[in-house]
C-alpha cells in the first residue's frame, strides 16, 4: 500500500464466509469419526462413557451351617458377566485393575435360611469388605434372640473409593449355626465403576 497505515480492525465471525474454516484448520487432536465430538479444548472425544470395569456373580451351591457369630465369605462362584476380567471366582473377590482407580457402586444380596425348625437368632448381617475390613454393612441385631423365621433376604449396597489393587468381597453372619446361605439366582454380588465423578 501507499500512504497511511490502515487501522487494524478485529476479525469477526461476519467476516468469515460460512464453511470456510475446516476441521484441519483448528489443529484439533484425537480421532474424528462418527462416535466422537469436538470439545472446547480442541480435542475429539467420545460422548458419555462406560461404567467399566463391571461384573455380576451369583452362588451355585449352598453354604451349610454357618459358624455362629463369625463372618463367613459368601461363595459367589458363578459369573453372569465380567467386563474387564476383574472378578475372580477362585477367591470370590473383585480386584481393581491397572488404570481402574475411582469410585465404584457395589450391591450384594444373600438369602440366609433356617435349616432347622424356625430357629431364632439375635444377629444377622451382610458385609462388603474392602481389603479385608468392613466398608459397607447391613446388620440386624438385638440383645436377645427375638428374631426368628425360615429365611431372610438381606442386602447391602453403596459407593466405595478404590485404588488399583484394592479388593472387595462379601461376608455374611448369623449368630445361630442352624442357618445356611441358600443358593438362589437372586443371590448377587455386583459392581461397576462410576463415570464423571
Note down, in words, how this protein is organized:
With 197 residues, this protein is mostly beta strands. 0% of the residues lie in helices and 45% in strands. It has no helices and 16 strands. The protein has strands spanning 36-38, 44-46, 54-58, 72-73, 78-83, 87-88, 93-95, 102-114, 120-121, 123-130, 133-141, 147-148, 151-162, 167-174, 179-182, 188-193. Strands 3, 5, 8, 13, 15 and 16 form a 6-stranded antiparallel sheet that branches. Strand 10 (123-130) and strand 11 (133-141) form a beta hairpin. It is rod-shaped and about 105 Å long. The mean pLDDT is 88.
Descriptive key words:
197 residues, mainly beta, 6-stranded antiparallel beta sheet, 0% helix, 45% strand
Short account of what is shown:
The chain is mostly beta strands and 197 residues long. It is built from no helices and 16 strands. It has strands at 36-38, 44-46, 54-58, 72-73, 78-83, 87-88, 93-95, 102-114, 120-121, 123-130, 133-141, 147-148, 151-162, 167-174, 179-182, 188-193.
